[in-house]
Amino acid sequence: MKRIFFITGTDTGVGKTVLTALLAGDLRRRGLPVAALKPVSSGGRADARVLQTVLDGMLTLDEINPWHFRAPVAPLLAARREHRRVNMADVVAHVRSTQTRFDPVLVEGAGGLLSPLGDDFDSRDLLSVLRAIPLVVASDRLGAVNHVRLTLAVLPRAAAARTRVLFMAPPKPDASSGTNAELLGKFFDRKRIFRLPWMGRKPATEKNLADPRVRRVLRALTAM
């Protein structure tokens, strides 16, 4: 069965694109025909361009990111400012079309799980329809456990049972950094909690992808 992994986060700016790029780079190194999509974005297309670079031109920018809006607000509001709208059926059709050519497919959400992507759907709705495996990214700092638990609480039961959680080290750690994974393990399956170190502003480098610690985490996240 072809696989879809949906990368969501506890908030915006927590490392969704970093993880998506790392996963795409690792899967390509393993010779797998991976696609990485950010179907909906607002506030620019920088994230989509990162993914296009990692994919080495396998997909065009418009294939990676068909719905993009200028304003740096939730996609629903950004689309309205441009008198446009995003329909979930169209997004699902685009992902499914990509899936006919690639396996696995990585789909990066916009903002947090419940941030509206269109008039009648958010990332939770989209990953449910796609029957995707959720990968929840959180910045490994104070408040992360609460944010992760809130995200897990609103996932559909079937999706939650397959969810993996990744704590991404921030550039400037605080007193809680490095402790959040252990604390979350009191409420969530420890075997599905992972951590990655801070790897700089351009993490999907050959050096980082060759690091055994990074490679182990990435491959555990995408294991069936």
Shape field: globular
**In CATH terms, what is the fold-level topology?**
Rossmann fold
CATH class: Alpha Beta
Q: How many separate structural domains?
A: 1
Percent in helix: 25-40%
Instruction: Enumerate the spans where pLDDT stays under 50 for 5 or more consecutive residues.
Output: none
Sequence of strands across the biggest β-sheet: 2-5-1-8-9-10
How many E-type strands?
A: 10
- CATH architecture level-2 label: 3-Layer(aba) Sandwich
Q: Give the number of helices.
A: 11
Strand content is 15-25%
State the distance separating the first and last CA atoms. Answer: 11 Å
| Global Rg | 16 Å
* Overall pLDDT metric: 95
Task: Please identify which CATH superfamily we are dealing with.
Answer: P-loop containing nucleotide triphosphate hydrolases
Largest sheet: 6 strands, parallel
Structural class: alpha/beta
What is the N-to-C succession of helices and strands? EHEEHHEHHEEEHEHHEHEHH
Describe the protein's architecture and organization.
The protein is of the alpha/beta class and 224 residues long. The chain has one domain: 3-Layer(aba) Sandwich (Rossmann fold), CATH 3.40.50.300. 40% of the residues lie in helices and 20% in strands. The protein has 11 helices and 10 strands. The strands form 3 sheets. Strands 2-5-1-8-9-10 form a 6-stranded parallel sheet, sandwiched between helices. Strands 3-4 form a two-stranded parallel sheet. A two-stranded antiparallel sheet has the order 6-7. The longest helix has 14 residues, at 16-29. The protein starts with a strand and ends with a helix. The relative contact order is 0.18. The model has no long low-confidence stretch (mean pLDDT 95).
